[in-house]
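Q: Okay, next protein. This is Indolepyruvate oxidoreductase subunit beta family protein from Nitratireductor rhodophyticola. I've checked the sequence twice, so it should be correct. Can you predict the 3D structure?
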Amino acid sequence: MAKRMKAKEEQKIIKLAILAVGGQGGGVLTNWITDVAERNGYLAQATSVAGVAQRTGATIYYVEMCQDTGRRPVFSLAPAQGDIDILIAAELMEAGRAVMRGFVTPDRTTLIASAHRIAAVSEKIEPGDGRADSPTVHRNAREAASRYICFDMEKVAVEAGSVISSSLFGALAGSGALPFPRESYEETIEASGRGVKASLAAFGRAFDLTVSGERVEEVRANAAPASGQIAVEGPERLVARWNALASRAAAYPEPVRAMALAGLRKVVDYQDLAYGAAYLDRLERALALDSAEKGHALGEAAAKHVANAMCYDDILRVADLKTRTARAERIRREMKVGEANVLQVTEFFHPRVEEFCGTLPARLGRFIENRPGLARWVDRRINRGRRIRTDSLFGFGALWLIGTLRPWRRSLLRHQVEEAHLERWYALALDTAQRDYALAVEILNCRRLIKGYSDTHVRAHSKFDRVLSGLTLLEGRDDAADWLRRLRDAALKDEKGEMLDGALKTVATLEAV
């Protein structure tokens, strides 16, 4: 009897699935796992089912292994629901999808996942914030798995100069889910022959984090210090003016303060210190109508959305961002380009006559726009796709020169158009606040609808106008704020606007009743 039980245990098949997006090294990780199994006297078989395309569909890699007893086992070619011992997800949402598909079970599965996020196509195409809720995924994963190991393995790999497959391999080794010693994992990496030093560093760090149960905490970029102030460097005169503005914002009520400081930093970076003072002047118009009894919701919404409205995307902004050193460094880091390598970057532009006129002095821009024949003539000559190599002196210089026009932005047509639109929207919200506070907050929040550049910006404006057109039907209703929020949410959920059309029809029906 004991011999039969031992033979059964030796023939037990360990089933492991890996869900990875294209470019994350899922194939390399699969090969490492089969190699380490074979090093320890196991038979192993690996298969894969590729996604639709890189970065849009995850590939499922599947490994089955068991001890080599001289008898060939029958291995499966694909994972089955409720029949997985170890599941490795190369990013958080893949862990969520594995739970949804039934691959993870509480009586059996060890779930190893990286906490970082890669937005899925379904999350990107939603006009609003389409991102899935990460805390919900963590909670469901803990409930679904027998054991849940999750931390930012991408960050561990990047800090070691490696790729995420190395840190995932380390987490697998540290979990003890496979009966193999650490040394055999490291021997497998060494035998691969490429990037061994960096891979071992990422492996070791992930192994230690898994064994100790520590977590790699995410630090918000550009977060303000605990004092609420934001340290800056530069000429003393400018630093003194910045500190005066920051102190002014720091004196606001606590619910508004953090957002006001973030908004101030954004508008000053976008334009200059005078623009920052104008932002605070606008914000204080809302604070004058606000109160602690109402939680300062009006002031907080104004702090966020006025800053975004003042920092609209124009050609000057795009050119400025594309020529910043921080962007070049980020691209090199994300593409894993070494110092000895040359990185070539091609930017795509497709300007329309509207963008061209927007960068002209206001009178000249209006002169062209008010003459349809002239506008069409200009459009035929500029409305075409252009590719600019910003790694070349000419391409970088052209964009840099456009970015230097920022001091003259206030005199350009686009700025005057945006300022006029901002003031109409803001005045509408503040006037409404005096009779319906909650509705005024929702009017401010409708600024979420406006984003993007060129055609995207035009479509966003159209949705914004259509949502606010419902105000005439909602005026005077006790639930006006709730209905305006529903209209906005409908507009954010659907790119084509069909949900918004239906919601507006519903509002019209309410008015008729």
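A: Here is a summary of the prediction. Residues 170 and 203 are 4 Å apart (CA to CA). Residues 217-228 have pLDDT under 50 and may be disordered.
Q: Noted. On to the next one.
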